[in-house]
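I am still learning, so would you mind making up any protein sequence you like and the tokens describing how it folds?
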Amino acid sequence: MAVHNQELSPGRRLAWLRLLRSQNVGPALFRDLLDHFGSAEAALEALPGLARRGGRRRIRIFPVAEAEAELAAADACSARLIASCEAAYPAALAALAEPPPLIYLLGDESLLQHPAVAMVGARNASATARRFARTLAGELGDAGLIVTSGLARGIDTAAHQSALASGTVAVLAGGVDHVYPAENQPLYEEICAQGAVLSERPMGLSPQARDFPRRNRLISGLALGVVVVEAALRSGSLITARYALEQGREVFAVPGSPLDPRARGCNQLLRDGAVLTETAADICEILQPMIARGADAVSTPAARSGPARRAPPATAASPVGVSAAGPISIESDGAAQDRLIGLLGPTPVEVDELVRQAQLTPATVITILLELELAGRIHRHPGNRVSIS
């Protein structure tokens, strides 16, 4: 999946979608399955056996008919489904430890390859903050930067509106064809016509509360840095800032009055080391070295956030079932599984540490973890760590 120039055939695209939408398969497990089996088609065939060995009698594999219906809905609204191995996929997202394998896009896909800055803030933003957001987004656009945000009320809306002429990308928590909030329907249509709208969620999906943090992770992941204009101490904007730090992105904060609770989140970010931001020049000064590096800039920041969650080198080069020494068994033995489960607890532990303590081969450990994850018995965590469910 590290390859970034392979166009999927219609059949392979359908298989990718079916695998990603199958029960218990998220971005991290999707990548592991593709690494191990070499193709989505082979992984789909292996899912029932893997889940059964992990302790789940049955697992729902996304039906062909439902996948075809989803793709038909995308065609109906001219949305394109882009895979992480394709050239049109955003380089900034591809540099993340766990990029979404598939994204839907409406609008100008070329914007996804330009350097971007995310702007987020309060939905109930003050008039002063909205005016500042409009000014800042316009200045960033004049400097050649794309502005990404989440199409929410307040700061998001102000940033998108001001950046329409220079380039803006809206990341949605629901389906790319589902506008939220509904009052932003006119703005959504303008962005579709002049900018780009992106989502990793299924077509037609109405967003739930749990979907917004996932959306925030993509807003920061698309950008070189995140600017928080106005935010309370407990807000989605601070979640976006946290993701930015985890992804190795820069965090900028606009100072606000200590008398306004909507400014406390920004002021806290400043105390924690965010870049104090009063003009676009404050942002451009920090980002200019990354912009000058071009495509390399999106991989360097991500590398600072810690080790990407990768399979151990012994198994990364070949699908499970093939090795330099010849065929190996995909099936884990019960004693090995019991030994590994005995080492797991609620506290996340690195996979490499499990390999050392279990005294099993990396291939065996990775296979058992695949089985347990498909059965819903373990959780994945950043930094190649796992815990028991």
